[in-house]
Design a protein that fits this description.
With 289 residues, chain A is mainly alpha-helical. Chain A contains 13 helices and two strands, in the order αββαααααααααααα. Helices cover 77% and strands 1% of the residues of chain A. Chain A has a two-stranded antiparallel sheet. Helix content of chain B is 74%, strand content 0%. Chain B is globular and about 70 Å long. The two termini of chain B are 42 Å apart. The chains are: A mainly alpha (289), B mainly alpha (269).
Chain lengths: 289, 269
Amino acid sequence: MTRNRKEALGAFVYILPSLLLITIFAILPIVMNIFYSFHDYNIIQPPSWSGLSNYKRLINDPYIVASIKNTVIFTFITVPLQTLFALVLAALLVRRFHDKFTNFIKGALFIPVIASAVLVGTLWSIILSSHGVVNQAIELIGLEPINWLGRQSTSLLSICIATIWKNVGYFLVIFYAGILEIPTSLYEAASVDGASKWQQFIHITIPGLSSVTYLVVTLGTIWSFQIFDMVYTMTGGGPGLSTVTLVLTIYNTAFKEYSMGYASAIALLMFVFVILLSQLQRLIMRKDG
Amino acid sequence: MRNRIINITIGICLVIFAVAAFIPFVYMALVSLTQKQVLDFQFAINELSLVNYFRVFKNLNILVNFRNSLIVTVSACIFNNFISAMAAYAFAKKKFPLRDKLFYLYIATLMIPGQVTLIPVFVIIKNLGLMNTYPALFLPIINAFGVFLVRQFMVGIPDDLLEAAKIDGCSDPRIFFTIVLPLVKTVLISLTIFTFITSWNDFLWPLVIASKPSMKTLTLAISALKGTYSTNYGLVMAGSTLAFLPPFLLYLSLQRMFIQGIALSGIKG
């Protein structure tokens, strides 16, 4: 055996375990998912060819329509707010506070990030419950309590609040690291020229963070398309269809109704959204430099 | 002077936000110690008791869930570190045909959300006869992210160092274990933290794959608690507090590494 072939074989041994896992749990499933989406499949009987019928069903399914609508509303509420909060908090934190103070604030804001979405959902559904703290506070100031999770008009909003609360710390840390990458000489020069802190923020910090902001926005949007745990624990999709999401519909279709084929078509639709979003990000990033 | 006032104001605002971030957890812990039906702001010290914790332990088999979460999470961490470091070593330090193409394929798989492959992975696990087993719970958590992360650090190890070891008669596995792995210790710790949090907090996958009560993880138990005892806030919060403790204690002891790890993953995108 030549030296090169021996080395290649040696390398292959190191790669084999991960290649096996990635093939079984990522590559093969994508192929299978496409295959199932053209079939009727209930796990017990073998898949039977159904052509485009799963895809035709997608267009008129009220669950899908509501899922997409809810995702879009959810994205438009959570992504701008969590990005703004994280950006502003990061910019304020960068001011020269005592290190211990900065670490305490960063540390505290990061705690919701390490909690599971199920835990956050459980905690917030108790905080927002009819006798919960939020309603107690509302009653204290003399207003009518609100059935946050039980009303169509506030159910999605409640999930947004819990999600923003959970995500801000994550994006804060990314913004904070991004701001530290901006050369301090820029701020010094602006300071000499008499620019105020606010002007420095608008003209140096925000442009300097453009690639980080794109990342935060895209990541936030992709997460929005994947939301499940929080909805499952807080509302289960209701009341009505006011909080159903694509993943919740995939789960219910596949594991409650055992329509694996149709659920695969929904999963593929979701995949297309996610791919489009990340490609869009790459395009914008490239244009930006 | 004016600057000082501004700084103090900003400081106070930051404290308010920080408190808003963690006060719900304090609330969670307080509620877990009460037996009230109405959740007001009054928590009398002499009314607090551990009775909910006893009930959670006694009636709900939470120790079994706890053990399952621990086994799954520790296995996921060990396997992910090991498998990722091995592949990363080959991608960073070995030459073989199609190396770069294969690496791009790895990165491309990171674009696939787990929810998209949920159904086929379920079918595969079922056909392998692995339903309700620990490997089924932790193996699918492992993805190409670890390989990508660790490779970025291994590329920085000088080739001369490895060549020198080879000339001294060091075997390849020994180079990997005694030279390469210790040099990337920091990134392996970051990867462990990531894997720990992902695996401990995972919900959808165990929901689908662990149908037997004896295999359910802690997140499943919390969700079930909430469904069954929706008005017994104290009991639900006691379970939640228990589920939150391990990642929280890990976070308290490794706070800096957590935050570095996230900043690192941010660069990944």
